[in-house]
Automatic annotation (TrEMBL):
One of its GO terms (cellular component) is side of membrane. Residues 1-23 form the signal peptide. This is FAS1 domain-containing protein. It comes from Panicum virgatum (Blackwell switchgrass). InterPro entries: FAS1_dom_sf, FAS1_domain, Plant_FLA. The keyword Lipoprotein applies. It is found in: Cell membrane. PROSITE patterns: FAS1 (PS50213). Belongs to the fasciclin-like AGP family.
Amino acid sequence: MDLMRPLAVVVALLAVWAAAAEGFDILQILGKQDEFSQFCKLLNETHLAGDINRDRTITVLAVANGDMGHLTSGHYSLGTIRHILELHVVADYYDEKKLKQLSHGATAASTLFQRSGFAPGMAGYVNITQHRGGKVTFIVDDAADSVKPVTFVKQIESHRYDYSVLQVSSVLSSPEAEAPVAPPAPVNLTDLLSKKYCKSFAGLLAADAKAFDTINGTKDTALTLFCPVDAAVAAFLPKFKNLTAKAKTAILLYHAVPDYYSMQFLKSNKGEVTTLATTSVAKKDYTYEAQTEADTVTLDTTVTTSTIQATVRDDDPLAIYAVSKFLQPKELFKSKTKDLAPAPAPEGAKKKTKKKPGSTSTAAAPSGDEAADGPAADDSADDAADKAGAAPSPLVRWVTAVATVAAVLALVA
């Protein structure tokens, strides 16, 4: 009996950890029910869905299609709609049980609108009140007396202490959130890159119409661009010139991500990054790993490891970061990890010098019209150091889980 208790605790903790590691996708959760299709559509169009998915300890107050009211009338700009929707994202965890057990029967909770910096005073807070009979209502703080609170309808899905998705009876009203939002000033991508760190990379983009049009056409919706600094472009240019036209386009698109990643998000999250090359080149992966070590963000392609040197722009929906090296995809160049264990030399043959991780390697021969681009450029010594110091995220998660289990066992022993 004494042994079963700690074992049960360990199993429960591992289950919680595994569920949290799987991630959270608000569009996938609400997409299971057609009645929330309009709410999902606006979350997607305003890019708020991505921010919700990246957050933790969060409650989403979803509204069914028939209760969306003026939010779908076409009266508001996307900027204003985003602010209104931000009122429906509470920066705390509330499930049905917690709502009906509120201390003193009421509380004020901060929302993403408050966090956005556009909410004056208490306009970004929502008052949650429990009434007799189990009824629970939500209303924006400082709302006019004529504004009616919205009512909790049901719990859609929750993961305890992590995220919760609830249905409410209608859209929350707030004059501050509904205020007109001026459209962002147009961004000239070439000028922006040329003025800060990335003039050479801007020149390569401008010379490739397909890559430029694809990247430039994405910047107003959601784009993160990792531009190599001028010195990195100069070092890689001899290899770049030997690539075919198709490979040149692919490697330029490889530096662009069709999503907005703030610096804060990059530093607090690890994982695989999908690029515009991934979505543009059939049957090719074109991804890499983004990791953080000692407050430094690294991008590991398995061929090169590049670090973010400076922020060129970080303003939703566009983020541009200057990186230390040209990102070389494993689809065009031989991965360093494949050189870690070279085959032994045949007996009698002259011994070859064993290669070390991060040493010079020859480029893999791409198939089709992505012709081989010649010998791979020399990787600097800090490539190997960066690579060795960047533990893969699954390992980090398992180490964390094991440490947690060990602590629990110590407590219950």
